[in-house]
Design a protein that fits this description.
alpha+beta, two-stranded antiparallel ribbon
Amino acid sequence: MNTEPKQDPRVRMRNMLNGQSAINRLPKKKIDTQSTISAQVQDVANVTPVRKDLTHPADTESVPVKEKRKYNFGPPFWTIASILSLTINLAMAIVLFLAWTNLPSLNVNGVKNSVTDMGTGLLGGLYTNFEKMDRAHITRTIPVQTTIPVKFDLALNQQTNVVLSQDVTISNALVTVQTGGLNITRALATIVLPQGTNLPIVLNLTVPVDTTVPVSLNVDVDIPLNETQLHDPFVGLRNVVEPYYCMINPGAINLDAQSICK
């Protein structure tokens, strides 16, 4: 059993350190001059208030913001529009200048007559051609190549002559023979008709016919258009042109030399 009195812990610590301070015995940290200066500047910046209106916008924003590119559509559009306007105005000025220089060669007094003649010719041509179209015919020769089926019963009842193609033997025929010394009346006999014998006969029978007949011919076609469905459209076209034609030429006549304007 230890009977020594317990020492004060502070005394024991001094004895262990030989009288030196405990702080001096700790390892010393290397001081980075640049880091120390940066830290001091940061401390000053955090402590010192900065006026927002006297600093640059880039210094006040902690996170940089990318600037958006702006497209200006107005200036190019007005530039192109101005160029087109100047070009059109220049072209119109050239056209007016050429018309003014050629004005003496134009027959101004005859413009009205020229327009009237042109209208008369145009409307008259339309009316006359519509009338001709209504009176036209479609003529054509159409070749026909076909086969027609033929099926019917042919009834025969007539007298005709036939020629034997070979010898024909008739047995038990009733024969009457009258000669100078021999008379035989209705006696049975066998008769042989030679080949080439001409016999008159009567045909009385019905013959069925079932066959096809080839047809090859040319068919002439003549179709007047005024008898078809095209008649109404042609008449309608003439009625549309007629008021304007009579307005320009009141003495207009048709193909029959009759007055159109009544």
